[in-house]
Specification:
By secondary structure, the chain is mostly beta strands. The protein is built from one helix and five strands. The protein is 5% helix and 34% strand.
Length: 101
Amino acid sequence: MATRNHQFRLAARPVGMPKSSDWSYVEEPVRDAGDGELLIKVSYISLDPAMRGWISDRKSYIPPVAIGEVMRALAVGRVIASKNPRFAVGEHVSGGLGVQE
């Protein structure tokens, strides 16, 4: 598959207001879906106040986003390839898909 994925990853823990240097933009090839997996093209990403807590290194209800990881986010997208019998190509899905395409 010749598709590219565009992601925003946490590059550093922000001090004060987040700035552009706290993020890295990554573009990488998308691998084919493996057995039981889906390939989803994200259409909408939710930007939530909780994200501020997720990028800090403080104890919380959920582990912080690690440096170098795709920024956590809820998202909605469309299945473009499926090797999972529960999901058909063309279906819309939602979940913790991250800030990526």
